[in-house]
Amino acid sequence: MSIIYAPRGKALEYSDLAANLYTGCSHGCRYCYCPAILRMKLDEWTNDPKPRRDILNQLDRNAAKIHGDKREILLSFMSDPYHSDGAAIVTRQALLILERHGLQVQVLTKGGKRSIGDFDILARNNWKFGSTIIFRNEKLREKWEPGATPIDERIETVREAHRQRIFTWVSVEPVVDADEALAVMRELRDVVDLWKVGKLNHDKEREAAIDWKKFLDDTEKVLAGKKFIIKKDLEKFRDKS
């Protein structure tokens, strides 16, 4: 099985290629889709996260086969590259492998300051740093993302990446609370190079409570003049008249 792969479906909206280094994740996000994909319960997914077997050697072999490829590789769709201090060590080794093979990388994390130690690699390669931030309210973060780093830490990490002239992007997905998502956009509007915004799925009751057309309109007003991508699930609520 290839560690570097081309995602399909909705994931392709985020990246042409991806690599998943870990099985499990300590963040325990209530909206996480990974346990369902693997037919696991959330507590099983969060109980004992670990690197995939022989991951760095496998990654090295995969990377050698596409040496110099200009497509971006996302770390990662499954788990978080900085979900623990141990994970951060493996991720740095993985980044050095990808750098050695002349590949392009973007990371996506809720791991906050654990990622700062790798900003030297991102900066010298013009790679991209992304963070998922869907709340401004810390109590909501504790409820929905109990093992992830606090919101203020994630925000400061994005600001630090910007200070270091690293391309920054923020994933505002899944939107659980429209007002919270808009508050994140307002706060970080001037330090984020690219926004990716997508709605909540697989929660019919909460989805029905959000006016998605209004949220889409509000998003475009808040981000006017900035670069952003509206995911297809949210785009369909656009007024076509």
Could you characterize what this model shows?
- The protein is of the alpha/beta class and 241 residues long.
- The protein is built from eleven helices and ten strands.
- It has helices at 34-37, 42-47, 55-65, 85-100, 119-125, 138-144, 151-163, 178-188, 204-208, 212-222, 232-235; strands at 4-5, 17-19, 22-23, 50-51, 72-75, 104-109, 128-132, 167-175, 194-199, 228-230.
- The chain has an eight-stranded mixed beta sheet. The protein has a two-stranded antiparallel ribbon with strand order 3-4.
- α3 runs parallel beside α4 (85-100) and α8 runs parallel beside α10.
- The longest helix has 16 residues, at 85-100.
- The chain is globular and about 45 Å long.
- It starts with a strand and ends in a 6-residue tail after the last helix.
Low-pLDDT parts are none
Radius of gyration: 17 Å
Mean pLDDT: 95
Order of helices and strands: EEEHHEHEHEHEHHEHEHHEH
Q: Output the number of helix runs.
A: 11
- Strand content range: 15-25%
* CA(first)-CA(last) distance: 47 Å
Q: Which of globular, elongated, flat, extended, rod-shaped describes the shape?
A: globular
List keywords for this structure.
241 residues, 8-stranded mixed beta sheet, 11 helices, two-stranded antiparallel ribbon, 39% helix, alpha/beta
In short:
By secondary structure, the chain is α/β, with parallel strands linked by helices. The protein is 39% helix and 17% strand.
